[in-house]
Amino acid sequence: MNHAEPAPVSPWSRPWTAPSSQEVRAIFKDERTRELPAVKRERVWAAEFAALGVDYDFPTMALGSLVRRERVSA
Question: Hey, CA dihedral for 58, 59, 62, 67, is it positive or negative?
């Protein structure tokens, strides 16, 4: 029996589903968030990304100093 390898599928063959660079820049450069404390600014950004269907988990915050993560066994 001859089993042919499936042809690789290019990731570019699917439509882009993530926010555009313009949408992301608009969120991070919003004048309303400039004067907010860092934690509140991150929360606004998370809400804006959630409205676009994207999970934003505060990647720019050093949360190690704010949240102590415990190891969880599944």
Answer: positive
